[in-house]
Design goal:
about 400 residues; alpha+beta; ten-stranded mixed beta sheet; 13 helices; about 35% helix; transferase; Thiolase_N; Acetyl-CoA C-acetyltransferase; Thiolase
């Protein structure tokens, strides 16, 4: 296998996923095109040299339908010879796109690929792709053989099974807001963020979702949101798989779960030959990648086995990793992963995570990889690991090593 290098990572700011969010006026195709437009200028690169554009997108309907990757290439006014395709591994889609590109470059089939993802959650609602169907999408095998529930119920199930308290999830959420606030004030995201034009022509350069006022006192007063959506019926379905628990303790709220936002991010990856040919400076190399399947009711424990597989492939231990980005789908997901993998809090999501900054489903994996490369450079640290939990019971993980 050839070495695969990260040359650049570019993202938009994240806007609240609602009608009045700062990016709600931006068509999803244009949102995906923003970092594509910036990439050639940042790297003095002829975009016709890019052999493929791979984008993750979860709700591939409406304005995000057809092939948003190819449409974004066209909207960015890139040369027509550049192809693109879109994939869906739910919340892991952006990182999966990077792993697909890694495979193509590492195998020698391609030398220069752009990979990332996009999601406009204000314009294409989460779940729009299965609108009118149940969690089994009308399939009798899934309905009869698996206890499928919403992810919020799964997160509360993790908290119940592994004794994660309401105070713990709120304290963690408070830290996410605090860390993000420091990162923004210190300009730690400036290297990767490119401006999006606002409705009045203004440059939008800051993530909209963080709320530093969300301290523990505020967070602890919020209602447990997943207790209000068909609790008895959905809990009963989940407890078919875990009858020993008797009941589910609902601890997750709008304050300790990931924010619904719009955003996109891409990563430029390539081989040593591409670096030489196009005068690109490697910032990091892809050390190992992995995906894992897990039990589909509890669903969100996938970062643990995926990270373990990636570490084993790399010949590393959890202690060898300097920085971790564990997607903050819900507080309990990160707390569980830290416990199981033995990771100290000071290594995890040091610039805040999706609780504060938001989780644009298809784009988050690519955004997190850019964040960890930036932070490895800032700290002059060596190894970083990015991992996300995934609906249906999966996990994805990628290890990078800083160069220089």
């Amino acid at each position: 296998m050839k070495e695969v290098y990260v040359f650049d990572a570019v993202r938009t700011p994240r806007g609240k996923g609602k009608k009045r969010g700062v990016l709600a006026h931006v068509h999803p195709v244009d949102l995906a095109a923003v970092p594509l437009k910036a990439l050639p200028q940042r790297n003095n690169l002829d975009p016709s040299a890019v052999e493929d554009v791979i984008l993750g997108c979860v709700s591939q309907v409406g304005e995000q339908g057809a092939c948003i990757a190819r449409n974004a290439v066209l909207a960015a006014k890139w040369p027509e010879n550049v192809p693109g395709y879109v994939l869906n591994r739910f919340c892991g889609s952006g990182l999966q796109a990077i792993q697909n590109a890694t495979g193509m470059i590492g195998s020698g089939q391609m030398d220069l690929v752009v990979a990332g993802g996009v999601e406009s959650m204000s314009r294409v609602k989460m779940g729009a792709d299965i609108e009118g169907l149940d969690f089994a999408v009308g399939n009798e095998v899934l309905k009869n053989d698996y206890a499928l529930v919403p992810q919020g119920i799964s997160a509360d199930l993790i908290a119940t099974k592994y004794n994660i308290s309401r105070e713990e999830v709120d304290r963690y959420a408070e830290q996410s807001q605090q860390f993000a606030d420091v990162a923004i004030k210190e300009g730690r995201f400036k290297n990767s963020i490119v401006a999006v034009k606002g409705p009045n022509g203004e440059d939008i350069v800051l993530d909209e979702h963080p709320r530093i006022e969300s301290d523990y006192a505020f967070l602890s007063g919020l209602g447990a949101i997943f207790k209000t959506i068909g609790e008895k019926e959905l809990d009963a379905i989940a407890l078919r798989r875990y009858p020993e628990l008797k009941a589910i303790q609902h601890v997750h709220t709008l304050g300790n779960a990931s924010g619904v936002v719009d955003g996109s991010g891409i990563v430029l990856l390539g081989s040593e030959e591409a670096a030489k040919q196009h005068n690109l400076k490697p910032r990091a190399r892809i050390v190992a990648t992995a995906v894992a399947g897990t039990e589909p009711t509890i669903m969100l424990t996938g970062p643990v086995p995926a990270s373990q597989k990636a570490l084993a492939k790399a010949g590393l231990k959890a202690d060898d990793i300097d920085l971790w980005e564990i997607n903050e789908a819900f507080s309990a997901v990160v707390i569980f992963a830290m416990r199981e993998l033995g990771i100290p809090r000071e290594k995890v999501n040091v610039n805040g995570g999706a609780i504060a900054l938001g989780h644009p489903l298809g784009g988050t994996g690519a955004i997190l990889l850019g964040t960890i490369v930036d932070e490895l450079e800032r700290r002059k640290a060596r190894y970083g690991l990015v991992t996300l939990c995934i609906g249906g019971g999966m996990g994805v993980a990628t290890i990078v090593e800083r160069i220089g």
